[in-house]
Amino acid sequence: MEIIIQDGYEAISTQAAQIVAQTLNAKPDAVLGLATGSTPLGLYKELIRMHQQEGLDFSQVTTFNLDEYVGLPKQHSQSYHYFMHENLFQHINISEQNIYIPSGTTSNYQAFCEWYEQRIVECGGIDLQILGIGSDGHMAFNEPGSSLGSRTRIKTLTSQTIEDNARFFESSDEVPVYSITMGVGTILEARKIILLANGAGKAEAVAAAIEGPVTSMCTASALQMHRDTIFLLDQESAGNLKMTQYYQWIQDKMPGAP
Ligand code: PGA
Q1: How much distance in Å is there from the Cα of 40 to the middle of ligand 1?
Q2: d(C-alpha 167, C-alpha 39), whole Å
Q3: Cβ contacts of 204-210, under 8 Å, gap ≥ 24
Q4: Whole-angstrom distance, CA of residue 248 vs CA of residue 243
Q5: For residue 7, what pLDDT is reported?
Q6: Rounded mean pLDDT, 209-228
Q7: Catalytic: 226?
Q8: What is the whole-number distance in angstroms between the Cα of residue 161 and the centre of ligand 1?
Q9: What is the pTM of this model?
Q10: Which of 62, 122, 179, 202 is a plausible cystine mate for 197, CB 3.0–4.6 Å?
């Protein structure tokens, strides 16, 4: 794991965008795993800027989103389909047929989940997965207690996640109770992962994920088992880490490493 602590949100967003751009420059038909929520908005804004001003090309890129609310139609303003089109897809030159987002309205969830997993494999696997982290330590909607080997499936949201996400709805009663989400096992198969976090509200979850035990009580802690994960953190979200000085020391010494 690489832990990078930046001054602020803009810096983590820019650095994440640079990693995405490097991935696409090396492999123009890369498969990206994408996340929703407030955290990746700065990254998406920067990718749009890079596309518009620097010609960053998405024409051969395939994307798989992590999750979706069950029961919200695609056109619903809080669906993750809507979010992705509003905040990224409609501003870049990605081909509509290369966009995959779990369905929140399928008539057969089990079959859909199996198909989604199979499509990821058929497309060659995820080269770079973008993640946020929930205040309860979830990645995607893998809430506490999710098996660390879990695959794409239906997951019941915790009351904490429902409260956290209520800010986007009229009230917490309107937040869907179920989600369809890639599993922890699905995510761990990505070749490279970047987890972004900002703000003091994430400090506890970030510390548990990086320095706590590997446990289904904080599913992001499973990233300790992944061989190429970068945590991009602002100062506040890194506030509860104990080994901060060492993480900084590593970054300072990296240019001289053999
Ligand atoms: P947020 O959500 O980016 O809106 O904080 C992160 C998450 O729940 O994974």
Answers
A1: 8
A2: 14
A3: 204/135, 204/240, 205/133, 205/134, 205/135, 205/136, 205/137, 206/133, 206/231, 206/233, 206/237, 206/238, 206/240, 206/241, 207/240, 207/241, 207/242, 208/137, 209/133, 209/137, 210/1, 210/3, 210/241
A4: 9
A5: 95
A6: 98
A7: no
A8: 9
A9: 0.97
A10: 202
Catalytic residue list contains 85: no
Read off the tokens for 223: 């990233």
CA–CA separation, 240 and 236 (whole Å): 8
Amino acid present at 112: F
164 is catalytic: no
Check pocket membership of 134 for ligand 1, CB cut-off 6 A: yes
Which of these is catalytic: 127, 136, 164, 234? 136
pLDDT at 61: 98
pLDDT number for residue 185:
98
In this structure, which amino acid lies at residue 183?
G
* Structural tokens at position 69: 């609310």
Q: 80 exposed, middle or buried (CB, 10 Å; 0-12, 13-18, 19+)?
A: buried
